[in-house]
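Justification of computing resources. Each target in the renewal requires a structure prediction run like the one illustrated here; the chain below, 166 residues long, is used simply to show the kind of job we budget for.
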Amino acid sequence: MASLTVLGLDPGSRFTGWGVVREESGVLTLVDAGVLRVQSLGDMDLRLGAIYKGVAELVARLSPQEAAMEDVFVSRNPSSALKLGQARGAAMAGCSVAGLRVHAYEPSVVKKSLVGVGRAEKSQVAFMVAQVLSCRKDMPADATDALAVAVCHLNQRRFRRLSGEP
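Resulting structure tokens:
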């Protein structure tokens, strides 16, 4: 089996977490992870532009073959949900322009894929990311969430392949 490199994204209007995971012969390896910090740029148009540009630069530098991010969840605050959707769109466009397909997963699917429970706490997800990728446990939460999405995508991909799904 050839290796596959996946960019996981956790978009936000102030912080966008990103993480790159490579799978080779069933073994997952952390390539790199971090956070695009755009909150200091002020207006939303500038932050969205920075997310788009930052993601496009990550794709160019790290050459992932696929990308994954969480679906937008509906919150009680419509303004927050709208901003999250805009950040997600900017990140998705940054991937798409580079020809990278983006796969979306419900937050509960990401959590269940790593922890076994769809309502797991962030700390449980971070712990499992550190275990699965043999990496440090003190990463920023946004980066850990992005790595969780990448690991979930690789798990779902493997499951689909084993079950004969396309």
